[in-house]
Amino acid sequence: MSRYVIRPLVGWDRPVTDPRRSAGVFKASWHATLDLLMYEVEQLGGDQVVLQIDVQEGELRRDGMLRANARVGFPGVKVSFAGTWGPLTFASDAYEQPYYTGLTSWQANVRAIALGMGALRAVDRYGITQSGEQYRGWSALSATSGEFDMTREQAADLLAADTQYGSNVILADRDIARRAYKAAAAKHHPDRGGDTELFRRLTRARDLLTGGDP
Fold first, then answer.
1. Which of helix, strand or coil describes residue 41?
2. Residues 6+ apart with CB under 8 A from 159
3. Where are the beta strands (DSSP E) in the chain?
4. Residue 8: phi, psi to the nearest 5?
5. Is residue 160 within 8 Å of 166, Cβ to Cβ?
6. Are 8 and 54 in contact (CB under 8 A)?
7. In the 8-state DSSP scheme, what is residue 68?
8. Tens of pLDDT along 76-106?
9. Distances from the Cα of 105 to the Cαs of 6, 60, 131, in angstroms?
10. Which residues on neighbouring strands pair with residue 88, listed in sequence order?
């Protein structure tokens, strides 16, 4: 199973870059870019990564990858994961592809994020900080959305815990995920004495697995 999934971009809460730089400054392939990103995520204690890009839900396959005919609009990207310093979200819209060669616009922004993560990590290597102060701003971005503190696999496990459905089935079928959510939510609804925080996480798990479509 892939260690990253793609989700539709939920808003852009940063200033829009204008003008943008050319994606042509990056000569690496998309495969090399993913390898670099995953390496940097691992160095921060992360594993599963969520890439938010500007596509419609219908342009994503069930496994969280782009369909072959998917069209990405706005070039901005958000990269989210949970690691040593808690949930982090890095974002960039600084690059776009002027010609149909090399990395696409959103892929170039993923590479910029991966390189930026390496630069932030250098602060630790040189002993300037020991408690991850340089990541606090990026942690705040994540906290505002509240959507990416669990992976799709964790979301499926959460919905499966109190239902008849297995995690793999929930993960593969959005209709099953909705049914599992309804069963779990009925059991843990705060109006019926359930835990409010657990109910909130169940709803978040449903949104992650169904794209927010109840």
1. helix
2. 165, 167, 170, 177, 180, 181, 184, 202, 205, 206, 209
3. 4-8, 21-22, 49-53, 77-83, 86-92, 95-96
4. -60, 145
5. yes
6. yes
7. T
8. 999 998 888 888 889 999 999 988 778 999 9
9. 15, 18, 34
10. 81
Cα 198 to Cα 40, 54, 126, distances in angstroms: 31, 30, 41
Domain boundaries, the chain: 4-145, 152-210
Is-cis flag, bond preceding 15, omega within 30? no
Examine the pLDDT at 147 and tell me if it is beyond 70.
no
C-alpha R_g of the chain:
18
Q: Provide the β-strand partners of residue 60.
A: 66
DSSP state of 47: -
Let me know if 170 is exposed, middle or buried by CB neighbors in 10 A (0-12, 13-18, 19+): buried
Burial of 194 (0-12, 13-18, 19+ CB in 10 A): middle
Cβ atoms of 119 and 177 closer than 8 Å = no
The reply to whether the predicted model has a pTM over 0.70 is no
Strand order through the sheet with 49-53:
4-8, 49-53, 77-83, 86-92
Q: What is the dihedral of CA 102, 8, 12, 201, to 10 degrees?
A: -140
